[in-house]
Amino acid sequence: MKKAQQEAYKRDYAQAKKEGKPFFPYAIYKDHIVAILCFAWIIGMAIWHRVEVGRPIYEATTDFVPRPEWYFFFLFELLKIFKGDNFLTPVIMATFIVPNVLMALLILTPFIDRSPERRIEKRPFAMAVAIIIFTSLAWLTYKGATSEAPAAGALKFTPSDANTEIAARVIKQEPCLSCHVIGASGGSLGPNLNNIGSQGKGVQWHIDHLKNPSSKVPGSAMPAFAALSEPDLKALATVMDGMGTKYKVD
Amino acid sequence: MTTKDIGPKGPAGQVADGAVDYVEDRTGAKTGISWFLFRNIPKETSWFQTLGFAAMAVFGLQAITGIVLAMYYKPAPDAAYASIQHITHDVTWGWLVRGMHKWGATAMIVLVFLHMGRVFLFGSYKYPRELTWVTGAILLILTMFMGLTGYLLVWDEKAYWATVVAMNITASAPILGPFVADIMRAGSDMNPDTLSRFYSIHMLVIPGGIATFIGLHMFLVAKLGISEPPWSKRSYKARYEAEAAARAAARARAPQGRREVTAAPAAPVANAEVER
Prior knowledge:
The complex is a heterodimer.
Chain A: H1 3-18, E1 21-22, H2 23-26, H3 28-48, H4 73-81, H5 91-112, H6 124-145, E2 157-158, H7 162-173, E3 181-182, E4 185-186, H8 203-211, H9 213-216, H10 230-242, E5 248-249
Antiparallel strand pairs in A: 2-5, 3-4
Chain B: H1 11-27, H2 29-38, E1 40-41, H3 51-70, H4 80-89, H5 94-122, H6 130-153, H7 157-171, H8 177-185, H9 192-224, H10 233-253, H11 268-275
């Protein structure tokens, strides 16, 4: 905005203020009506939707989706889009680039849009940005809200050997299926593992990845499973390395 | 306003006046409060301009319900879950206070986003209110962090694993990411100290930040004034009058016999005048 336009705005606003009315009571009464309505909504929701106590942490269950509060659903849904399945969808897009670009744009908005025009019908670009961001956030939130928990059940590997027995036990005891599809069911936060062996990463890669996922897949949001015993890790990694090639899940 | 002299004030009135004068003399509080309350704002303000105040009011409610919850909550991994059960099932109206804190968080996020949308659509972030927007954007981010840290405190399965994922997301950020995640988790992994650290961040660090930035934000809003809706009757009238004056000036400068026609489409000369 040019100096003259800034001064014109100040003059215009001073005039608006001069012709205006005092903050108390003319603005503050409206504020209080809306605030009281919000309080009433909060108390009403607290009574209508009684809070529940979720299941404790250390029970070996897999039939849940690790899900944040609803206003972070869009971030978790981004993880489902950018899983690192191919070079076009690196995880780092979901975990770092998209959220930080949004945050930077948010803070810098007044320095990017410096035109003096305030009427939204005369700001088509701003209107388009607002609509695109709002609809994509709403859509991702809706997708996050409607994602379903995987069914818990024992996995049957074919062919079955000592490694698959250990793998089936570990997969059941750790929350793998909350994020990954193995067999018919599982979450969609992480990649589908049914065909992961065809990537031919090798057993040692899978062991290192389980111990510290982000060392192998930059930007990975997967928890580290370093607490697993060495034989368990080795068996699980062997099965993972053979998924889709040597092993299948019925 | 006419006042009627009804004689000297009684002793109580005199003491009250004296007290007000004493404080005013030493702090200027009376002048400051009168300035804040009775400053003029534009005549036509929209109902959408109440959302910021509502968000602040809900933050106040969150502080009160949060204080009550903190009286019963135990931020230790082996006690947190039981204390949540205690609050929900045993404490008188504990379910209501916990429910209000939970739904209050949702309300605050919604209000903060709606308020941001209102400011964006009204173009209120433009000169001279750019820095008001920046403080508001920081408040929005702080509010999101409030939700992130508070969510873990219920210490159940969903919240725990969601926080593991969220912390891994934080750690994956280049340069500062791993440090921030380690500071928040109190280590390179979730551990027994993580819960009390989240508790401290949720109860002390972020509320302090939010209170500070609300103060700054409010100061700027009061100092710069509430923006006028861009479609207010007054601004349309002012714009129309400015354009009419520019046309009149153009007409006055035009040579004899070449008067401007005011109706659109205007001649290029008139247009240039209007824009200037």
